[in-house]
Description:
The protein is α/β, with parallel strands linked by helices.
Amino acid sequence: MSKILVIDDEEEIRIALKRVLTREGYEVVLSASVLDAIEKVDSNKDFSLVISDIMMKGKNGIDFIQYVSESNKNLPVILITGNPNLATAESAVRFKAFEYISKPVDRFQILSVVKRAIDSKTKIDVDAEKLHQSEIMEKVLRSQYLDLNRQNAAILNATSDAVITIDFNKTIVFANFAAFEMFHYPSPADLIGQTVQVLFTENKMDKYIDRIQEVMGKNQKKQAYQQADVTLKRSDETTFVADVAICTYILDGESYFTGVIRDVTQKKMMVEQLIDSERRAFLSTVAASIGHEINNSLTAIQGFVEMATKETAEASLKDRALQVTLNQTQKLQTLTSNLLQLGKSSKTRSETIESIDVNKVVSHVLEVFKETARLKYCQINWEPGEKLSIKINPDQFSLLLSNILLNAADATKNTGTISIQAFKERGSVHLSITDDGYGMTEEVISKIYEPYFTTKELGRGTGLGMFVVKQIIDSFGIKLTISSEPEKGSVFTFIFSN
Ligand code: ADP
Ligand code: MG
């Protein structure tokens, strides 16, 4: 209920106004003098409106409105006068009286002005409250913003990745702590303000920037770009290899690039070491089974030669001995040349990429492995077809294929069926290796590329085979799809895009 203060030194008028207003549901407080009224509005904050006479003994209505106006209260005042004149009207305007009404006051007129005055005050109060709330909100946001900024700064300085921002002129405008360390700069001042060119060797940067712009330009929505194996330069001219993720954004109409740079030298070294140790493990497995083959051949040769060299030996036995020796040495020869082929890989690896015929390499790898203990009792279905060229390092391809073949053989407990198919589909060469072995669960498939992940018993699996396969397919952009079902078998399909 709105509370109205009525000021008038004539009692009948006070009473009359009170009657009219209370009938409309307003609460009315009466005051016979301005001094009393001032005291009332000072001590009581919840008046919605004041209706005051102008002409009164002592302080008058103008004094009152002046007081209200100067004390900045949101309190509408309706002035009533029995003697309208320019001077009081002018004061009423100056001190922002809500209305200036002349007597006699008609009931409808006063009620309508009262209603408007109260509505207007309510609206001003609501607006003021809204403003107040929005000021609070702004304060909260500002402090959250500062918190975020602080958090951001803490993250940027805690991460071991270098974070560098450049503007459209390719000038470095921000670099975090890790950036100075990674690029061997003594302080922020030495890096900020320089062109980003200083971080690249020769003219490599333009190549990358072009590429980034090309990728991002094509797809407006794409605001992030990643590039592996970027060669970067430190302040002392030494270089290192990094993975770089770049995002672009526009701030105040200017575009910026922020790059997150991860030095992958260590990681690369570890991967190389893993590949090497797998190669060694692999070669020792091969060596054991091939040693066995050699031993068999030598035993046969030795037995026949010993018999043939006895004085009593018949000519036919001598012929037989020569034949066996020839066969066995031929077998040994292919075996050793194949081994040499596989063994030389470690030095030439990843440097030479050749166009090779998938059929030839598959046949070649099968020749090496099919007589080894792990594959000897497997049924291998393979029929080389038309020439299918792929670009790859042949040694790495052999390593990849033999890892898949040996896994397939193991999955069939070395006695199952392995089918190999090479074909062309939608312009790409496919190579699939299917086995009818014990297959894999989803969980095994999801971990298959993890180094050291093996389900095989101790001494049989190293858990590095598929990890090496992954390294190889990644470095040549080969796609590998695996489909498998427990107890049914697995299919590994390589898709060569070149
Ligand atoms: P390893 O052969 O030394 O165990 P790999 O990295 O070559 O290591 O393979 C990891 C695991 O993946 C194997 O232990 C096996 O569980 C699973 N795996 C790989 N190939 C096959 C396959 N053809 N059939 C069933 N399981 C397979
Ligand atoms: Mg394996």
